[in-house]
Amino acid sequence: MTWTGDAYNADEDVEYERELNSHGMEADRICDICGNLINIHYDKKGEAYWTEGHNALPVVNGRCCDKCNAEVVIPARIKKYMEE
Ligand SMILES: [Zn+2]
Questions:
Q1: How big, in percent rounded to 5, are the helix, strand and coil portions of the chain?
Q2: How many A from CA of 52 to the centre of ligand 1?
């Protein structure tokens, strides 16, 4: 049996998907800005306590991931306040 780079990557994807789905509802939380899954925050027991994403206003009326919140939404809010 020959291990190829492609086969290895495909296995990684399957594992990742299975882990997301095993926790339930987070699989359908999609960032309204970048379209990626919103990463869930877990407590020390491994229970999800933060599954809804960040408020994405004023960029879009929806939810967004950590990355978009930090890189898009917060700068947009600061800019908005500066202009007002
Ligand atoms: Zn995002």
A1: 50, 15, 40
A2: 12
